[in-house]
Design a protein that fits this description.
The protein is an alpha+beta fold and 154 residues long. The chain contains 3 helices and 6 strands, in the order H-H-E-E-H-E-E-E-E. The chain has a 6-stranded mixed sheet with strand order 2-1-6-5-4-3, with helices on one face. The radius of gyration is 17 Å and the shape is elongated.
């Protein structure tokens, strides 16, 4: 793969990962499904939560994130190409998870490790997962005048 092609393909994978994160945080599960291969697998939180195939991953996220407000940001990708149609990626993760019903907010960080395949000219996630380097839980009761506003508020 020449340098220009590598840059183009790296950008396509970065856009895929950005779409994945946006769909998770906006709860766009139909859009999220398009990010995965049908036989995809996911191992979240160091394998504590493992699911396959794609439909099981989507069902887990839809159920587990129903009442959460989240922001997931990934940075500094290390993307390596195994071939013209296969790649791996490591991404630094920073996230905030607000569990309003539980009165808690989690601040966390870790690393995603992904496998990608290009099928019919489109990159998709074949395998994804993250392992946390830390998470910090904060009680809303400990924060004076704590209040949450978000666009999904009922």
């Amino acid at each position: 793969m020449d340098d220009l092609r590598r840059l183009v393909e790296t950008d396509a994978i970065a856009r895929l990962k950005a779409r994945y994160q946006r769909c998770v945080d906006t709860k766009d599960y139909d859009g999220l499904a398009t990010c995965f291969t049908e036989d995809a697998c996911a191992e979240y939180d160091g394998g504590k939560y493992a699911f396959a195939p794609r439909d099981a991953i989507i069902d887990f996220l839809r159920t587990s994130m129903r009442d959460l407000v989240t922001i997931h940001q990934v940075h500094t990708p290390e993307i390596d190409f195994v071939s013209d149609t296969e790649a791996t990626g490591i991404w630094y993760l920073q996230d905030i998870v607000i569990a309003e019903a539980d009165g808690m907010t989690q601040l966390g960080a870790g690393f995603y490790r992904d496998e990608y395949v290009k099928d019919d000219g489109v990159w998709r996630i074949r395998k994804t997962g993250y392992e946390r380097t830390f998470d910090l839980w904060q009680s809303h009761a400990e924060v004076p005048k704590w209040r949450l506003r978000h666009r999904w508020q009922k």
